[in-house]
Specification:
ten-stranded mixed sheet; 16 strands; binds fructose -6-phosphate; four-stranded antiparallel sheet; binds magnesium ion
Length: 377
């Protein structure tokens, strides 16, 4: 029998915030995860959520939620906001965790968490017969950290075999690039506009990839968070650690094509005090914690199958994809690269340029030395 019922669309919302952590900016406390779970469980019971999974990457609390309410929905954003608030009030403050409530930048919620501190990656989809997705979250870096892997996954034929040999992907993908300074977006269809894509996104601090669509039918394939906390608050409040959702398989990059680019621990901005460069280390959930020079920056990848909004993994747990031994070498390289860059101390490029540093004493040093600067002879 043909199923002629109209299948409702599913929205996947991954919303994250740093609301405090144990031992500095190291790691979320298990009790914070429990309280967040309780909040989302209540919303699942009352029918607001179809399903959810709470996890952390370093000091960032990540709420992966599925529902029928679409993107930028005030009920869902309000739920995330109230969850972060409740975790802050019930756990971060009483335990006096470090930087309690750090990313809740405003007092009152006004309908959408974008621009209020938390990071958001969202997509509304029509579920395919089987819908494999991967949720990514990174700590001690910024949204531009995902640009190189996203380029490799969706535009680089030397990395993603499907671009070359899967007829469904052969027309390529369209990248929506967000200018974080001017708050504007531009759509670039690759491979035709590949050089323009690289011209922009090579400037990782300014042009970041917000969404990716399959060009031939506009199917949404990826959504990433693009928040820049420093631009929201006008002062340093912690790096805007990013998250993203990627759909995989059957005319989209295979899970293995999506993961492979992270086998190269590329240099990203962030690390100590959000003011240095370091390698992005792919890790399983157990190792999603920053230590060495508050790093090296970490990324986790959690795989699920989405079935009528349910997040199917192994029992209550997802496929913890970077926990695999196949990423051991990337971790070794990341450790070697961390040692190497740290031997530069505070000399560029190990330290970011003055315009990108989240902490700086430079203006006060210059002010103090002003009377002592003499015209060069
Ligand atoms: C970077 C980060 C940490 C802190 C550092 C200093 O994103 O969160 O590296 O910047 O630990 O933190 P404070 O100033 O809170 O002592
Ligand atoms: Mg923190
Ligand atoms: Mg963080």
């Amino acid at each position: 029998m043909l199923d002629l019922s109209v299948r409702a669309k599913t929205t996947i919302s991954l919303i994250k915030a740093d609301v405090g952590s144990v031992a500095g900016h190291h790691r979320v406390h298990p009790r914070q995860i429990e309280v967040a779970r309780d909040c989302l469980e209540r919303s699942k019971k009352d029918g607001t959520l179809l399903d959810y999974y709470v996890f952390n990457c370093g000091d960032d609390l990540e709420l992966l939620m599925t529902h029928r309410l679409g993107e930028n929905n005030s009920t869902i954003h309000g739920l995330a906001w109230n969850t972060f608030k409740e975790v802050t009030e019930k756990v971060s403050k009483p335990l006096r965790l470090y930087a309690a409530g750090q990313d809740l930048l405003v007092e009152a919620f006004s309908g959408n968490v974008k621009g209020m501190g938390p990071g958001v990656a969202e997509m509304e989809i029509e579920e395919r017969v089987a819908e494999p997705i991967v949720a990514f979250a990174a700590d001690k870096t910024e949204p531009g950290a995902f640009s190189l892997p996203l380029y490799r996954i969706f535009a680089d034929p030397t990395s993603c075999a499907g671009l070359v040999i899967d007829p469904a992907m052969h027309e390529g993908f369209t990248f929506r690039v967000f200018d974080v300074v001017e708050s504007k977006t531009v759509d670039l269809a690759c491979p035709t506009e590949l050089y323009d894509l690289l011209a922009l996104t090579g400037t990782t601090s300014r042009y970041v990839i917000e969404k990716i669509f399959r060009t031939r039918d506009k199917l949404i394939a990826a959504a990433a968070s693009t928040t820049r906390l420093s631009l929201i608050s006008g002062r340093y409040v912690g790096k805007d650690d990013p998250c993203m959702i990627v759909r995989c398989q059957h005319g989209l990059p295979a899970v293995g094509e999506v993961l492979q680019p992270f086998g190269f621990p590329h240099l990203v901005a962030g690390f100590m005090r959000g003011s240095h460069i370091g390698p992005l280390m792919p890790v399983g959930l157990d190792n999603a914690r920053c230590t060495f020079f508050d790093g090296p920056p970490r990324v986790v990848a959690l795989g699920f199958n989405l079935t009528d909004g349910r997040l199917i993994g192994f029992g209550d747990e997802p496929a913890d994809l970077f926990a695999d031994v196949a990423f051991d070498r990337a971790r070794d390289v990341a450790n070697d690269v961390s040692d190497y860059v740290r031997r530069h101390g505070e000399f560029m490029p190990a330290r970011l340029g003055p315009e990108e540093m989240e902490y700086t004493t430079l203006p006060s040093v210059l002010e103090r030395l002003k009377p002592r600067f003499k015209p060069a002879s």
